[in-house]
Sequence to fold (171 residues):
Amino acid sequence: MDLSVLLQAHRRQACLLGALCCVLLLAFALYSEFYMGLPPCPLCIFQRVAMAALGIALLLAALPPAGWRLCRMVGAVLVAVAALATIGVAARHLYIQSLPPGSVAACGASLDYMIDVFPLADVLRKVLTGSGECAKVSWTLLGLSMPGWVLLWAAALGAVGTLASWPRRSR
Fold:
């Protein structure tokens, strides 16, 4: 049996399981912050927001009944967009972490301060530019840093959610 056919047959379960994975990933991020003492950099916070958006998109994709073709398409597109946004932020973070020491700007202002002082467009630009705290790798598992794992999970969850939600063509 084709994987996409299997996923579509169990669309709700696949999307709900994907949303649960997002919740667990966010729970680990909070655990690493509050119990492991690893404060998040601004890009880490953006990844958390994007992962939460992916979880919400997966929940929404699980809602429409099988006959609601357009709603299922919208759900699939929402999942794909949220997954791509998460992948984009994680890829940018990995790129900043891969730069040689000294080539990344020194640590900047906190995200709270930037949001209070600058317009949102400037905050987005400054955070995606990266700074010293974003270049630091403080945790790895099997050789991958947190943004690497976020990228892998977002790609897998996005693929599963999109394949499961996109309605099959009627034959």
In short: The radius of gyration is 18 Å.
